[in-house]
Structures are given as C-alpha cells and as structure tokens.
Amino acid sequence: MLLLLNFFLLVTFSNVAAVQPSFGIDPVNKTFLLDGQPFQYMAGEIHYFRIPHKKWDDRLKRVRSMGLNAITVPIPWNLHQFEEDDEPQFSGDMDLSKFITLAQSNNLYVILRIGPFISAEWDNGGLPWWLLRKKTLQKYRSNDTVFIQQVTQWWGHLLPKIFPHMRRNNGPVIMVQVEHLYGSLGICDKDYLDQLEALAKHHLGNDVVLFTTDYPVLQTMDCGTSKTMFATVSIEPVENPAQLVAWHNIQQAFAQGPFVASHFVIGKAKLWGINTTFPATDDEIVTTSKIAYSMNGSISYSVIHGGTSFGFWSGSVGQYPVVTSHDMGAPISENGDLTTLFMKLRFWINGLSDWAYPPTSIPINIPKTKYPDVEMMIFDSIQGFILGNDPECWISTETPRTAEYIRHGYGYMYYNATFLDCGNLYIPSFAEDAYIYLNKNFIGTLFSRFGNIHNNTMQITGCLDQPNLLEIMIDMGGRESTMYPNPSRGIMGDVYMNNATLQGWYSCEVPIIPYQLSRIEDVHKMISYPRNLTAIREGALNPNVYIGNMHLKVQPVDTYIDTTGWGKGVISINQYTIGRYWGSVGPQKTLYIPGDFLVKGTNLIMFYEFEGESGACGTGTTCNAKFSDTPIFTW
Ligand SMILES: *[C@@H]1O[C@H](CO)[C@@H](O)[C@H](O)[C@H]1NC(C)=O
Ligand SMILES: *[C@@H]1O[C@H](CO)[C@@H](O)[C@H](O)[C@H]1NC(C)=O
Ligand SMILES: *[C@@H]1O[C@H](CO)[C@@H](O)[C@H](O)[C@H]1NC(C)=O
Ligand SMILES: *[C@@H]1O[C@H](CO)[C@@H](O)[C@H](O)[C@H]1NC(C)=O
Ligand SMILES: *[C@@H]1O[C@H](CO)[C@@H](O)[C@H](O)[C@H]1NC(C)=O
Ligand SMILES: *[C@@H]1O[C@H](CO)[C@@H](O)[C@H](O)[C@H]1NC(C)=O
Ligand SMILES: *[C@@H]1O[C@H](CO)[C@@H](O)[C@H](O)[C@H]1NC(C)=O
Ligand SMILES: *[C@@H]1O[C@H](CO)[C@@H](O)[C@H](O)[C@H]1NC(C)=O
C-alpha cells in the first residue's frame, strides 16, 4: 500500500515535470492551473523562524503526513536584516532557500508571504525596529519615500533568492502574498499596493501570481484589494455553512478565480496576563474544511505548526505581550507531537477519493525528557552585571533616548541620571516595565502594560544629602504585531522629579548576549569587575542574574525548563536565548528547549530574573532550575 502510494506521488510529480512548469489562474473556470492542469491546495502556515533548522525536515514531514499539499510561509524582514546597515542574512536558521528546497523534497508546494508586514504575532509584525528611527512608517506608505526605498532594497535582496524556486523554474513556489490583512488598517492606500506589486513583478516576473488577504467584509475588501492582484480571504471556523457561502460570495465579488481562504484561522496565540480561548471546536474546523473543499476552494490553515518565539521575537497583540510558546493549539504542537485535531483532519483527508495528495505515514514522536534539577547560583545583580559588561551608552542632557535612537533593537535598556531632592518621580511615557533604583538600591517597579494598567509615578524617599543616583532598567517587551506604525521602546520623552525635568542622562543598551562559554568558571573568569556577593544575596528579591551548569552524560533530547517559582525575565542556554518567561503572571510556565540547543557534556544556563524569584530558591542561597517532559500552562 505504501509502495503504491509513493508510486502514485512519483507519477503525479513526474507528469507535471514533463510539461512546461507554470502556475496561474483560469478566471473563466475559476480554478488555479498548475502546469496547465486544474489545481486546488490545502496548505498549512508554518514559520521556519520559529523552528531550529535541524528540525525543519521533521516538521515538514509531519505537515505532509496530514495530507496537505502546500505550506504558507511568512518572511520576517526584521529577522533577516537585524541592523539597518547589515547585508540581509540567509544562513542557518534563516536559510529560507533551504527551507523551500526541503518543502519541495517533501512534496509540498510553497506559498510565500513576503509582507513587508506579516503580523504573525512577531515583533513589529516583521518590520525592523530601525525603521522606527528613521521617522518613517507613515500611514500613507506610497508617500513615504524612505520606507519605499528600504522595502525596495530589502526585496532587492530577498526576491532574487526566491526567483529560482518559482514554479516556472521548476520550483515549488506557486503564489506570493503581498502585505497581510491590509484592508483592516482602513488606510486604503492603493498606490502603495501598486508599488509593491510592481516591485514584486520586477523581480519575480510578470507571470507571478500575487495575492492579497483580507477579512471577508465589503469595507476591508474594498480597502485591501487591488485590481491586478488576486483577492483572497481570511476565515474562521463556521457553525453554519451559509456563513462560508456568504464569505465566498464576498471574495468572488473581488476575485476572478477560485474561492481561496488563504488564512483559515484555527487557533489563537496565548498572551501573558489574559485568557485567550479559541472558541471553535475541532469538529467545526473539520466541517468548515469540508465545505470549503466541496466549493473547490483552496485553504491554508493558520497555523499548522507554530513553533517557538525564541529570543526576544514575540510581539504583542492589543498591548498584551505574546507568550514565548507559539503552539497556538495547532494540529502539530510546539514540540512536534500530533494533536487530536491533526488526527481528525488527517482522517477526513484520507477519505477523499478525489484528493491527489493523500496522507503519508505519520512520523514517530520525538523523545523528550524531564532532566534532574540544576542548581542555580546568584551571580550578580542585573544592574551590576550590565555595568560590568561595559554597555554602549548615549549621553544626553534633558531627555533620555529611546532604544531605537541608540540603535538597540530588543530586550532591555539601562538609564541613569542624578538629582538632588527626593520626591515624586514621574515617567509619562515608557515601554513596558521600569525597574527603579535609588543609590544602587532597588526601590520599585513602574509599568505600562496590558493597555489599561499603568503606574508611571512613585514617591521616592530616603535621599542622601548629596547628588542621588537614579537608575532605571527597562524591560522593552515585544512590539505590537497587529497594526502599525508603532511607538518606540525604552523611555520616550522627559522624566520628572517634583515636576522638574531630570537632567544629564545615560541611555544604555543592555547586552544580554548568550555566552558561547559553557562552564560557570569561564564566566567568572570573563567577568573581571568586583562583586559583593554578600550584598547581592541580601538583595535576592531584586533583579538578579542566576547561573548554573547542566551536565549531560548522553546525547541530549528535547525538554522543557519549568519557571515555577521564578518571576519574570529571560533564560539563555549555551548560545541560545530560550525566550521570555513570566511565571508570576502566566499562563506559560515551561519553556521549550529543543535537544538541538543542548550538548552532551556541560551546558550553561542563565536566568535574567527581574521580579525576584518566588520560591525557586527555598530559604538558602542556592536555587533550582527544574525541568519537565511536558508543557505546563496554567490556563
Ligand atoms: C475551462 O475548462 C474546460 C474543460 O476543462 C476547457 O475546455 C476550457 O478550455 C476551460 N476554459 C478556459 C478559459 O480555460
Ligand atoms: C501624498 O503626497 C501627495 C503629494 O505631496 C499629496 O498630494 C497627497 O495628498 C498625499 N496622499 C496622502 C494620502 O497623504
Ligand atoms: C483564565 O481562566 C482560567 C480558567 O478559567 C482561570 O483559572 C484563570 O484565573 C484566568 N486567568 C486570568 C488572568 O483571567
Ligand atoms: C468543482 O469542480 C468540479 C470539477 O471541475 C465541477 O464539476 C464542480 O461543479 C465544481 N464545484 C463548484 C461548487 O464549483
Ligand atoms: C551611568 O552609567 C554609565 C554607564 O555605565 C556610567 O559610566 C556612569 O558613571 C553612570 N553614572 C553615574 C552617576 O553613576
Ligand atoms: C505604583 O508603583 C509604586 C512603586 O512600585 C508603588 O509604590 C505604588 O503604590 C504604585 N501605585 C499604584 C497606584 O499602584
Ligand atoms: C506638579 O504640578 C501639578 C500641576 O501642574 C501640581 O498639581 C502638583 O502639585 C505639582 N507637584 C509638585 C510636587 O510640585
Ligand atoms: C558587602 O556587602 C555587605 C552587606 O551589604 C557589607 O556589609 C559589606 O561591607 C560589603 N563589603 C564590601 C567590601 O563592600
């Protein structure tokens, strides 16, 4: 049976290779044409940038094994071009060409979302932070010459890399999406869409099938579609088939071609501090898929596999920060395990007699384990650690500088200034948490988060009879992913003490750079500045850096680090930033660690803990990092 199946696929693929490879739309018969033959896709969105590249092939095999014939792949500009002056990077975890080639070798066609805005719960929706420096990102993009120039440069690097993978060149890339849900912004800048179209065609050829995706509402479709790009819709699971028919009709009013739901939302990102439940049941997702299929529609599940927002890449949605896990309740879970939704969709697809891409055999689950506790020691206060690492600072008189201004993209900022008299400290605008120190002592936290929870002022007491030192650490959080333009990060504008502007600022980047080192002793050697460990331990509830060695005698496998008993911060293991945690708020308690990030031998674990641990250290000076073999979410 398996042999027959493979043979069948081989025939399908070699047949199409015999004719001139091409992809297009038949507007009369309302169908896609792949190599001249009617074609329908069932795709799933997958984020190569949220999967370690060593696991790409495994994840793609899982996608194919459900019976899908295509994937949708967004491309985050900010990942590839970290700094403005950088040549865009395409190696290692950023090797897009390799990912596309792997998809093809797994018999999956590829639909690319080139943005430049991709949303995807990613920092700034994929737009680089350094654009915010350039006083660009205006609403009317077509008039924003700086932005258009930057996109032109970026696509000038990206699109030539994609071109060889286009279907016409015998590659798997069949379609390319421009922008994402653009109509929802209500800007309706059609000239902008035309500019993007011209730019894409310049690199990919006039025959490229470009498309837009918008909610199936007349107003947003009016606003987000263009006359010459194919209009598709974003849908949700429906209870009533009539709803899907109505959405189909709206799409058809704008599209000369098949029904396409290029963004079929089947799950929701979890956010720190708020309950987000996805209301639809598995059965509604299956039913909606069946109806769309019977309409000869093409669909793309968003998402088929979400992965993990490693580093500082998770964005925020409606001012709620997105958690590090991007599991999204997807058919293929964060660690690759297959869910009941996966099995239900696979069962349905397997029963389709007219589907030319039946499911393949299911790969076995990847092993995971609960490693023994690792002892963690307080290494330094965070502010001592930063200053010891000789941060890059910007010196200014009145106004502290934003992160973008001093060219610091992600993570944390450090500020200091001196003042004479104690009183009311007021920071009108900052993002998102501000940890305040008076004369080196931690005295409290101000925050501006969750949209409606702000505390931007505090009474400061205990000043000395001399210039007092005010230090502020800012947790920058993740930038908004669902709309733009975006405000900056760090402290935006003046800071007041008793209504007087504080003068003389240092605005510094915080170098949280995961170490290539693996042993605690090496870190000790590297840090040459003096530390008063007695004082640091007395301030165990202050923002601190913890450090520990994990010894593995055998080849490592996947695991989770359990942040129960820790507050808020970020964890790094070896040279990898595993991601943000916020155990004191939830819902995510465990962070996924792919075995690929660990080594047989000694591994270095670091916690940058900002809120102070709350139980991980018991009563003593040693604390524990705990592990788990399953993900833990409190809701
Ligand atoms: C529509 O499909 C029919 C049957 O396959 C075919 O004969 C016809 O040429 C198609 N029309 C167009 C415009 O491609
Ligand atoms: C774009 O710029 C032109 C010329 O400056 C101006 O006439 C037009 O109103 C601008 N469009 C928008 C939408 O701002
Ligand atoms: C979210 O919902 C769960 C279960 O209904 C509840 O236990 C939890 O406290 C809620 N969390 C928040 C932040 O509302
Ligand atoms: C779907 O396509 C088939 C074959 O081309 C056609 O017979 C059928 O009428 C189409 N169904 C719909 C709902 O368009
Ligand atoms: C503020 O921070 C900078 C950078 O670490 C440091 O050089 C400076 O001495 C600090 N200012 C004071 C008053 O401590
Ligand atoms: C704001 O934060 C400060 C410092 O943490 C605290 O002293 C004060 O009570 C808070 N105010 C409100 C209204 O929560
Ligand atoms: C600051 O200014 C406000 C209004 O401008 C005033 O109500 C308040 O008393 C002032 N606070 C101090 C400490 O001077
Ligand atoms: C270290 O800190 C402790 C507790 O704050 C203090 O008593 C001691 O004098 C400090 N030692 C030095 C060398 O500064």
From TrEMBL:
Q: Where would you find the membrane-spanning parts of this chain? A: none
Domain Glycoside hydrolase 35 catalytic: start-end pairs: 31-350
An individual GO BP term = carbohydrate metabolic process
- Which family is it part of? Belongs to the glycosyl hydrolase 35 family.
Q: Which keywords appear in this protein's UniProt record, sorted alphabetically?
A: Glycosidase, Hydrolase, Signal
- Superkingdom as given in the UniProt entry: Eukaryota
Write out the GO MF terms. Answer: beta-galactosidase activity
Q: Which Pfam families match?
A: BetaGal_ABD_1, BetaGal_gal-bd, Glyco_hydro_35
* Source organism of the structure: Caenorhabditis angaria
Family matches, as PANTHER family? BETA-GALACTOSIDASE RELATED (PTHR23421)
Secretion signal, residue range per the UniProt entry? 1-18
Ranges for domain Beta-galactosidase 1-like first all-beta come to: 400-507
Residues forming the Beta-galactosidase galactose-binding domain are 545-603
Q: What protein is this chain from?
A: Glycoside hydrolase 35 catalytic domain-containing protein
